[in-house]
Amino acid sequence: SSAHPDQNLAHQSSPFSVHSTQIFARKQSTQRSILEKTNKLDTIKEVFESQIFLLTELFLISSVCLLHVDSPDNRLLFLINFKNFVCKKRSRRTTFLGLNVATLLLNIFLPASPGPMLLGDFLVCVNLLALLFRFLLKFRTPESRDAISDSNTLCNITITIAVLHFIFPGLVLL
Fold it and tell me: How many CA atoms lie within 13 A of 47 on its CB side?
């Protein structure tokens, strides 16, 4: 069975078509790897944002605990123990203040995804800054009890902001 010479040419692929097929396959492979890397980066970013969110919430709650200890109606032993744990040693006070600064900087420069690059969670950042100044004053003179009303006000504001930040994590308040 002899075939026509034109039919044999039709079955053979030209070097140009083989080359273009290889280029197309490489292009698809590159696009797939870029898409996979993008998905991995998005996943890493989401995990990092959730860790910053958790760190912020834990710090706000621990700050509320330290502020509530100064309240005259405090009868909760675990709050007194927590205050003694944090305030007794200078290294723990320094660690607590360092955690406050780190949380503040993370919230300023790495806000939640819908937020702008700087100051995405404005109220949280302002509250963290107020807490930083309050704890600097409190840790400098831990025996002073003259600012109990300020502590209670800041405690109530911090509770409100922590609850709002927990319920509406993507809310940008700028």
Answer: 6
